[in-house]
Amino acid sequence: MVSTKRINITSIITYVISIFMCCLLAVIFNYVFLEGILIPDPCYYHNNDNVSKLFYLFYDCPSWNGGHPWPTRLNFFITIICGVFIGIVVSRLIIKINTYFDNKKMRRKMGCC
């Protein structure tokens, strides 16, 4: 069965912009705010061996960074994936709200309700 929903250019633009903005906000949130909370003292990690394996999944301590924690590619990809999911949810909410108000305007124009 073919869906009767029409995909218009406005909804596509809404999806693209909201996904891009949510990805950007997720990366900024991760690298500016969350990293400062999770790693208050970066020197602790190159002087101490009592660091969990979970930490090394998301952060590496490369020599070019002086042994200080640096986000891994997995950290970056998970941040981007979270941003995409949040962007999809936000865009669906925006489209649903716009559709609701457009339908309300049409009903008023037609003299109904």
Low-confidence stretches: none
Count the helices. How many? 4
Residues in helix, % = 55-70%
Order of helices and strands: HHHEEH
Number of strands: 2
Biggest β-sheet: count, sense, barrel?
2 strands, antiparallel
What does this molecule look like?
The protein is mainly alpha-helical. It has a domain at 24-86. It contains 4 helices and 2 strands, in the order H-H-H-E-E-H. The protein has helices spanning 9-38, 44-47, 53-58, 73-109, and strands spanning 59-60, 70-71. A two-stranded antiparallel ribbon has the order 1-2. Helix 1 (9-38) packs across helix 4 (73-109). The protein is rod-shaped and about 75 Å long. The mean pLDDT is 84.
Give keywords.
113 residues, mainly alpha, two-stranded antiparallel sheet, 4 helices, 2 strands
Question: How are the elements arranged and paired?
Answer:
Blueprint lengths: L8 H30 L5 H4 L5 H6 E2 L9 E2 L1 H37 L4
Antiparallel strand pairs: 1-2
Explain briefly what this protein structure is.
Helix content is 68%, strand content 4%. It is mainly α and 113 residues long. Helix 1 crosses helix 4 (73-109).
